[in-house]
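@channel sequence for tomorrow's demo:
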Amino acid sequence: MAFSLFKSKPSILVPLFFLLLLESLYQPSYGFPRYDPEDSSNRRLFGSRPKQLPNCGELVSQNQCSQNSKCIWCKSEDLDDTCFGKAEAWRLPRQVFSCG
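structure tokens (generated this afternoon):
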């Protein structure tokens, strides 16, 4: 006679199933840090945001543009010299802009 879960008593399997389910619900969450009121390292003022690098198009001088590694300064004879993102600069027409 082979062992089968379906032929055994359901009264044994049901509590075992619920115990395993409860244990999985009370496992610690490793993906999210717990709130510690004594730790102020993760506190920010209301409305404050972490410091972000500016958009390359917002940089108005060649010096500012060259300080950001993701930006490149492009010169033009016909248009204003402008700071572009590196991914954006390679798509510019070479007849109009000289980037580097």
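heads up for whoever presents: Residues 56-95 form one domain.
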